[in-house]
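Lecture 7 notes: from sequence to structure.

We start with a single chain of 149 residues. Read the sequence below before looking at the structure.
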Amino acid sequence: MAQTSEERPTVRIDGADPLLVPWDVAPAQLPFEVIRGPVAFECASGDRIERKYTGVAVFDLLEAAAMPGDTTHVQFESANGDLACIPLVDLNGAVLALGDGPGTEPERPRFVSPRVLGPRTVKNVCRLRPRTLAADADREAYERLPLDE
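Now the structure, written as tokens:
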């Protein structure tokens, strides 16, 4: 789990210039533009969830950490070890949302995207890792998802 020396809940964003962003602060104190608005995604059950989220655009975080130019996917890691590997194209409109719903700790973000199904909307995110996968690579080899959400 990514932590600072004071054991504050943080999210590490890997890249040429890695970042360690605290998430136990008020949204206005985050060092990024905070966005508010609806994001809808489909749960594994087939239900469509639409909620208003407060958070930071995933691409803003990746850009600030100097994501490598050959990146094809981003691996989202939760504090409990869940991993989801998401193609860049599916990150349009994606947000790291401040604490959302059951199972998400108040000081940890949840990854949500209108292009990603529920089981891959990782809760309690602690790290983002840019990945470069070959066109024929199996992204599921880079994932460890909960069996039921």
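The two ends are 21 Å apart (CA to CA). Keep this in mind for problem set 3.
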